[in-house]
Amino acid sequence: MTDSPKMTARHVNVHYGPKQAIADVSIDIEQDRVVAFIGPSGCGKSTFLRTLNRMNDTVPSARVEGDIRLDGQDIYAPEMDVVQLRARVGMVFQKPNPFPKSIYENVAYGPRIHGLAASKADLDAVVERSLTRAGLWNEVKDRLSDSGTALSGGQQQRLCIARAIAVDPEVILMDEPCSALDPIATAKIEELIHELRGRYAIAIVTHNMQQAARVSQRTAFFHLGTLVEYGATSDIFTNPRQERTKDYITGRYG
Amino acid sequence: MSALALALIVAGLALIGWLVARARAAAFRNGSQRFSSLPGHHGWYVALWVIVPPLAFLAIWSAVSPALVTEAVVAQPAAAALPPPGFDRASILSEARALAEGRAYGAFNDLSARLAPFYAVAQARYDWIATAAALLLAFAGGGFAFTHVRPDFRARTRVERIVMGLLLAASLIAILTTIGIVASLLYEAARFFRMVPIGDFLFGTHWSPQVLDARDPGANLGAVPLFWGTFFIGAVIAMAVAIPFGLMSAVYLTQYAAPSVRRWMKPILEVLAGVPTVVYGYFAALTVAPAVRDVAVSLGVTWASSESALAAGLVMGVMIIPFVSSMADDSLNAVPSAMRDGSLAMGATSSETIRKVMIPAALPGVVGGVLLAISRAIGETMIVVMAASGVATLTANPFASATTVTRQIVDLLTGEAEFDSPKTLAAFALGLTLFIVTLLLNIVALTVVKRYREAYE
């Protein structure tokens, strides 16, 4: 465990046009730990996740305030290169979104655009390593030239994870990565998250509280755009300090 | 009785039927009972039964009655002097008909003048029969429908079904018209191919229909230069303009433009599509063609034509830009935004995302759009009539003159045209070939677009 957190967010506000989506959220994302963001739909957890690699920049009306740092460096500073930031902070989306290319090309996409592989052999090695880490290598090694979109939903999502780790990120953001998957595929992704934890700082948004309890060490509970409670997962689920957290995890609402 | 009066009478009967049936149905509804149909539905049911049968009858009658009238005239003793069936007989009969209807003032052939009164009599008799039958059908239909106006009669669903039938008939008319056009095209083209071997037409490389050798008309009716010219202007030069500019403007509009820019820029681009092609035509002929020639001359090309393929193709390309742009725009918009986000989240820049993810994903739609654009370009007439040459040359030089199929069809059919010479009939053969080519292009394009649409749903 490192001393200082990988990413720190302090007093983050997000507005979509006149509407405030996030109010005064402060969270740390630590190396070698998984932090889960839970909360009812529309509570701002996905919005917050997307501030961490500036994906909200693609929404013209979105405005982000506050201080978010990666290794102490302000990611919203003018001199910050968004392209480099996103290479360091990867993202996996709710719905598997492989590109309409071959499995190999899907994984090779990131290394190619960032010039991470010097030769074809290097690139092959990166692709194999990424697919292996994503637990997909054995299933696809004989058909790397098949289309990525021809895989099953769970395989597609693991392909997207392989794609994200191929550029060697430091942080991986996952936005409800299992919500479109069946229970078996979900179990595989959760297992994968456990394995990836030693290598990357991970933040995961989930609707599923059991999932949060299974995969995370820290949990943040969002409600109506505010961070209600943030702490060790075991504490949040067994001994919540806030009444609202307790109501939510016991299924009173949400 | 004139057709207008008949129409007014039928409409009046329908109105009466509507009012009476509605009033009668309304009389049922005194209690709190629920009925399947409102009084208005009963009214419409009766009104439709008044209108539709005479209308259908008259439609069929108008197709059949001219033949019946002619038959009645031919049965007259005076008609014994008619020549045997053929072109002369038909022209005398049609002249007699024109005289009888007051469309002609003097007879060219005195036999027509003698037959004209018989025509008038027969026509009047058949008109009476038609009027009487139509009114009878209107009454019969109305009476039949009126017996159905009962509380438990489901007029609502019946009206629905009749309306569906009318809508079906309307769409069939469009299809049947197309089939009719194709059939006439086929018929005339077949006449042409009886005079000129199909191989000479399709593979001959010499086109000069003004000077035809009567013994071997096919020698001067080789369509290859025309099809080459069409392909060169419409599919090569025009697309060299339309594809890059159309695609790039679509990329800008969908991926980069702020909503406020897109809001005014897209309509302006679409206005380009609304410019009448004749305006493009004189723009091409009067502005672009001389400019192209001057540029060619300044580049040292001494034999540059002022009716160059380049001028026509450039302007045609500009005309097609909005078409390509809007097809590409649709295809790019149909690519799920998850695809774009996925690439951006990997740290790709916007242009990398567009080149490596968006355009490959949208490619089938773009290709389909381009094929449709080509099929439009090669069917385009006005620009080439005004700006392209009438002389068929087989050349790949953009500064030389070139002609197109559509331009030649216009030339063949304007001025003195005899409808039994290979020169005129060649227009139909060209039209048929062009029709087949664009039809195939459209089929391929729509299949490509459709298959691609399915992939993302």
TrEMBL record, chain A:
GO biological process, any: phosphate ion transmembrane transport
InterPro entries registered for this protein in UniProt: AAA+_ATPase, ABC_transporter-like_ATP-bd, ABC_transporter-like_CS, P-loop_NTPase, PstB-like
Record keyword DNA-binding present: no
Protein name, as recorded: Phosphate import ATP-binding protein PstB
The keyword Ion transport is annotated on this UniProt entry: no
Keywords of the record: ATP-binding, Nucleotide-binding, Phosphate transport, Transport
A Pfam family assignment: ABC_tran
One GO cellular component term: membrane
Lineage, top ranks: Bacteria, Pseudomonadati, Pseudomonadota, Alphaproteobacteria, Sphingomonadales
Location of the ABC transporter domain: 7-249
Organism listed in the record: Sphingomonas metalli
GO MF, one example: ATP binding
Automatic annotation (TrEMBL), chain B:
Cell location: Cell inner membrane; Cell membrane
Molecular functions (GO terms): phosphate transmembrane transporter activity
Domain ABC transmembrane type-1: 228-445
Residue intervals passing through the bilayer: 44-64, 128-149, 161-187, 226-247, 268-289, 309-328, 357-378, 425-449
Main location: membrane
BP GO annotations: phosphate ion transport
Membrane disposition: Multi-pass membrane protein
Keywords of this entry: Cell inner membrane, Cell membrane, Membrane, Phosphate transport, Transmembrane, Transmembrane helix, Transport
UniProt key word Membrane: yes
Any Pfam family: BPD_transp_1
Protein family per UniProt: Belongs to the binding-protein-dependent transport system permease family. CysTW subfamily.
General function of this protein: Part of the binding-protein-dependent transport system for phosphate; probably responsible for the translocation of the substrate across the membrane.
Protein name: Phosphate transport system permease protein
Source species: Sphingomonas metalli
